[in-house]
Design a protein that fits this description.
By secondary structure, the chain is mainly beta. It contains 6 helices and 21 strands. The strands form 4 sheets. Strands 1, 2, 3, 4, 5, 6, 7, 11, 12, 17, 18, 19 and 20 form a 13-stranded mixed sheet that branches. Strands 8-10-9 form a 3-stranded mixed sheet, covered by helices on one side. A 3-stranded mixed sheet has the order 14-13-16, with helices on one face. A hairpin with a 5-residue loop joins strand 3 and strand 4. It is globular, with a radius of gyration of 23 Å.
């Protein structure tokens, strides 16, 4: 088994190819950020000199122009991990009089940025799932494979009654449909380079946890830092307003944070000190109004958060966002399972570290032990 980590960088229009060796040699740092609820992004930094291939040929030829596709893969302990498949959106060159201090920095976002460029209003007289799958299929050339979960409360339009019209870009419209149904939409790169899973469905907080994060455990400690916070004002009690069809009375209905795919991770749930009316629900049918309220209830349930940093080689694998992970050594109140809200990969020659944020709904774990 190969120890340590190895970086693979591919660049090119539509179908990227391995970067030339002078580009790899000039690479000073890689940063990739993956966060639940936001588009993933990346930044590459390269050293420049007057006679370097990047300065004399690649920049003038458009090798790092906006629109170029970038795939970043890291192999840790012989296991490859595609951590980014994105598009360059910005290029910056910083020239310096000091030797070796000139740099080229390229910034980009994941391939979903391509879905947010063109606005073409289209009639889509079909169920929500079919609309989403059809829009994703337009980007099959960039390896997007749709994983569309049927909505809990189907909305099948009758053409003689109404025809749904897409407004905005493909991405904004899909995000709108996700919000209306209490779902999320995001893109996960991999598992093979060039492939991307386009997920439309409920936020899933179940599954096999990743290797535990150990703190304050002497030789078993595998994180460099880890701190916790409990925000009593973060959790809200959503209330949906539903109009009774006969009397036309508006009835307020509190919505509990219940979801089979997002169960509570703590015994002592944080109290709901704030009450918030969910907007634009009175004219919806009751099932859709409740779905919108459930989504907001689950989003605000995470009152406990944690942030820290780890060395990937010591941890043994990259920590993945949008999954579960166990924490050990933090005490009875804060030990247990957490949802990985975001991770940032920071890669330099000979160094691979990650900063991360975790979240859950309260104190004291529902599980007595976590996988190591």
């Amino acid at each position: 088994m190969l120890k340590g980590f190895y970086l693979t960088l591919l660049l090119g229009p539509v179908i990227p190819v391995p970067a030339p060796q002078p580009v790899i040699d000039a690479l000073k740092g890689v940063q990739v950020t993956v966060s639940a609820g936001q588009r993933s992004g990346f930044q590459l930094s390269f050293g420049l000199s007057k006679s370097s291939l990047i300065q004399t040929a690649l920049i003038p030829a458009g090798f790092f122009d906006p629109g170029i596709r970038v795939i970043i893969m890291v192999t840790v302990n012989s296991i490859p991990n595609v951590i980014m498949d994105g598009i360059i959106t910005r290029q910056e060159v910083s020239q310096s009089n000091e030797l070796g201090q000139s740099t080229l920095t390229v910034t980009g976002e994941d391939v979903s940025v391509l879905m947010d460029l063109i606005e073409i209003p289209l009639p889509l007289p079909m169920p929500v799932e079919a609309r989403v799958a059809l829009l994703i299929a337009k980007y099959a050339l960039f390896g997007l494979v749709p994983l569309v979960i049927p909505t809990i409360f189907p909305d099948i339009p009758i053409p003689i009654d109404r025809i749904p019209l897409q407004k905005g870009t493909d991405l904004s419209y899909i995000n709108q449909l996700a919000k209306e149904n209490g779902y999320v939409f995001y893109i996960v790169p991999g598992p093979a380079p060039g492939m991307n899973l386009a997920y439309f469905g409920p936020e899933i907080r179940i599954g096999i946890p990743q290797s535990a994060l150990n703190v304050n455990m002497d030789q078993f400690t595998n994180v460099e830092s880890l701190s916790f916070s409990f925000d009593g004002l973060s959790r809200e009690q959503p209330v949906v307003l539903i109009q009774e069809p006969i009397t036309k009375l508006t009835l307020p209905i509190p919505v509990p944070p219940l979801s089979l795919l997002s169960p509570p991770l703590a015994v002592r749930q944080a109290p709901s000190l704030k009450i918030k009316i969910v907007e634009n629900t009175a004219k919806l049918i009751p099932p859709l109004a409740l779905a919108k309220g459930l989504a907001q209830a689950n989003q605000s349930a995470d009152a406990v958060s944690a942030s820290g940093q780890l060395d990937v080689i010591r941890y043994g694998q990259p920590l993945s966002a949008r999954g579960l992970v166990g924490v050990r050594g933090a005490g009875l109140g804060y030990d247990g399972l957490y949802y990985v809200k975001s991770v940032t990969h920071n890669i330099k020659p000979g160094e691979y570290k990650q900063s991360f944020t975790l979240s859950r709904n309260g104190l004291v774990s529902i599980t007595p032990t976590v996988p190591t």
